[in-house]
Amino acid sequence: MKILAIDTAAETASAAVTDGGRVLGEYALSHKKTHSQKLMVLIERMMSDLELDMRDIDLFAAAQGPGSFTGLRIGIATIKALAHSVNKPVAGVSTLESLAYNLPFADGIILPVMDARNRHVFNAAYKWTGSGLKTVIQPNVCGIDECAERIKGENVIFVGDGVNVHEDLILSRGFKTAPVNARLNRASSAAAAALVKAGRGETLRYTELTPVYLRLSQAEQELEKRMAREAAEAKGELK
What we know:
- By secondary structure, the chain is of the alpha/beta class.
- It folds into two domains: 2-95 and 185-222, Nucleotidyltransferase, domain 5 (2-Layer Sandwich); 97-182, Nucleotidyltransferase, domain 5 (2-Layer Sandwich), CATH 3.30.420.40.
- Helix content is 36%, strand content 28%.
- The chain is built from seven helices and ten strands.
- Helix 1 packs parallel to helix 2 (69-86).
- The protein starts with a strand and ends in a 5-residue tail after the last helix.
């Protein structure tokens, strides 16, 4: 099964093609978060170098979140359009689960963390077992301190761009961090997760693929606060 996967959830824009789990090609660019300008260029160049046509792809996959709101929208829209063009199925994979695939069969707990700003991180926890990757903590967003406290005393390795932001704190708690070459989002890891989902029959029509944000955007948060304040003022609770 040939899979075209992309990950645009963070600063890195990444695209990969795998066949039966073997990576045929993977292109990535971490530069100024210009996903809208660079993503299709990466995909087209990779497909050309591999001498493949979109009709050769059996499954289209995307990291569907959490992550950058804009990045996720670009990635989801792109993969839906490509799948629609050749009438092929899609698979959405958790960005955090995909990061765990960067560390195949690592001992202990793998804790992906993605920077969510203001000392908060999108995070989850996974563990490799004889039957594959097991979810230990479901994807969520919380403060980095709370995240580190949850797993005290465990053999834990942190992975993801949140490590770059909070590495001093993570190391001070006695945890390990993934090496730089395995730390950031990779489309080949998203493809690996998608291959497992396909084996379980968990594919979708392109119309069914949606982003998973885990929290409201900054604009939506501000709107919610303003509406709450206006409602309180209307009731005379604020002066």
